[in-house]
Write a structure and sequence with these properties.
Elements lengths: L10 H10 L5 H13 L3 H12 L2 H15 L5
Length: 75
């Protein structure tokens, strides 16, 4: 369900939104920008990283690259 929101922003920014976005596109643009800022949240990312760490092929790949972290690079 959508809600109506009243916000205040810089006049030049508003003019740019009006100029660069399609008619009636400001709300969708702002919603998408806010959604991208908040999602995925830290807990979701942490859960996804933990799940990925349990995948055998990822562990094998990480082991292949371990040598690059232990060896000294030439100066």
């Amino acid at each position: 369900m959508n809600v109506r929101l009243k916000i205040t922003m810089d006049r030049d920014l508003y003019r740019r939104l009006k100029r660069d976005l399609p008619p009636k596109g400001i709300s969708a643009f702002i919603s998408d920008a806010v959604r991208c800022t908040f999602l995925p949240d830290e807990m979701a990312l942490d859960s996804a990283y933990r799940a990925a760490a349990r995948e055998p092929w990822r562990r094998e790949l990480a082991e292949d690259w371990d040598a690059t972290e232990a060896e000294a690079w030439p100066a």
